[in-house]
């Protein structure tokens, strides 16, 4: 980043400019390897982070306005749809029986809401257990077997998500959204194998896509009233996430208590950030000089996240 009084250099696993295709981002970001690891029983997460209007939802999902009747051009599809295709292709080629299901949540004004359950979205309680960690009670999980079925669930949930227009973005996400694919695999023929206790060897992995609402300065977006309340809620949860990442980036011996309970977002991402999971962070930035301070903030945030190491 080269600007007056702001010369800074950052290093990442991959960097894509504005001309990069969606296919190049999928192949170059390591997303294909994450899909394969989820099938091997790992807990995998990808989250898009950056200021409002920097292209997070586009990178994950592709163009806005997609629907079952108006699908997007295949070249413009994002990481999610490409991952679904890769997952289903892999499941057909592997010698194992796969059960796939999906759940889709949003965190709006510190309320967790199910985007797949019928009727108006209502707040669901977030619980803690020793075996499961933080989990959402009564969340709907829908099984799927085809690409059409999972893309339909994605579009159905996305259309129910809270969005609003402001000075920097006509379609600003007002909530954090988490789509989780649960992958349960069992080796074929395992039912007849002589396993002690008659249990079949099985693996359970997850692939979680997190579309974070963009950080925003109320002065820049011109938000007031309800929009301002939403912005404050978004910024508070992103601050809590940044605080957790900063503490996790410290050497193991110097780590203090990690405050996951500070927000619903950090509770739901606790396993992805500091557990035994594998996480890909996609930092989206704007090329505009007007956005310089937010761009530097995003890059510092991503640099800290890169120093977090877990032992999956």
Automatic annotation (TrEMBL):
SMART domains, alphabetized: KISc (SM00129)
Annotated family: Belongs to the TRAFAC class myosin-kinesin ATPase superfamily. Kinesin family.
UniProt-recorded Gene Ontology molecular function terms: ATP binding; microtubule binding; microtubule motor activity
Pfam families: Kinesin
Entry keyword annotation includes Repressor: no
Matching SUPFAM superfamilies: P-loop containing nucleoside triphosphate hydrolases
Domain Kinesin motor: 1-308
Record carries keyword Amino-acid biosynthesis: no
Organism: Pheucticus melanocephalus (Black-headed grosbeak)
Single Gene Ontology BP annotation: spindle elongation
CDD domains reported for this sequence: KISc (cd00106)
Keywords from the named record: ATP-binding, Cytoplasm, Cytoskeleton, Microtubule, Motor protein, Nucleotide-binding
Protein name: Kinesin-like protein
Superkingdom, natural source: Eukaryota
GO cellular component terms listed in the entry, alphabetical order: microtubule; microtubule associated complex
Binding positions (ATP): 50-57
Coiled coil: none
InterPro entries linked: Kinesin-like_fam, Kinesin_motor_CS, Kinesin_motor_dom, Kinesin_motor_dom_sf, P-loop_NTPase
Subcellular location: Cytoplasm, Cytoskeleton
């Amino acid at each position: 980043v080269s600007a007056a009084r702001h010369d800074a250099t950052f290093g990442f696993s991959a960097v894509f400019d504005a001309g990069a295709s969606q296919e190049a981002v999928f192949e170059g970001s390591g997303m294909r390897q994450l899909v394969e690891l989820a099938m091997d029983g790992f807990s995998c997460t990808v989250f898009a982070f950056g200021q409002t209007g920097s292209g997070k939802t586009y990178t994950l999902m592709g163009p806005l306005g997609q629907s079952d009747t108006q699908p997007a051009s295949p070249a413009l599809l994002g990481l999610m749809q490409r991952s679904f295709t890769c997952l289903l292709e892999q499941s057909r080629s592997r010698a194992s029986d796969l059960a796939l299901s999906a759940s889709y949540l949003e965190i709006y004004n510190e309320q967790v809401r199910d985007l797949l359950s019928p009727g108006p979205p209502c707040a669901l309680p977030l619980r803690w257990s020793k075996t499961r960690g933080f989990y959402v009670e009564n969340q709907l999980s829908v099984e799927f077997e085809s690409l059409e079925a999972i893309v339909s669930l994605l579009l159905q949930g996305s259309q129910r998500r809270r969005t609003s227009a402001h000075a920097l973005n006509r379609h600003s996400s007002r909530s954090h959204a988490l789509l989780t694919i649960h992958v349960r695999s069992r080796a074929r023929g395992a039912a007849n194998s002589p396993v002690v206790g008659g249990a079949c060897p099985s693996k359970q992995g997850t692939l979680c896509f997190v579309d974070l609402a963009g950080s925003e300065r109320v002065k820049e977006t011109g938000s007031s009233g309800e929009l301002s309340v939403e912005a404050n809620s978004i910024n508070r949860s992103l601050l809590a996430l940044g605080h957790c990442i900063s503490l996790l980036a410290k050497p193991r011996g110097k780590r203090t208590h990690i405050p996951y309970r500070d927000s619903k977002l950090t509770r739901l991402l606790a396993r992805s950030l500091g557990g035994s999971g594998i996480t890909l962070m996609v930092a989206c930035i704007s090329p505009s000089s007007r956005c310089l301070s937010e761009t530097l903030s995003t890059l510092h945030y991503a640099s800290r996240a890169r120093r977090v190491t877990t032992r999956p």
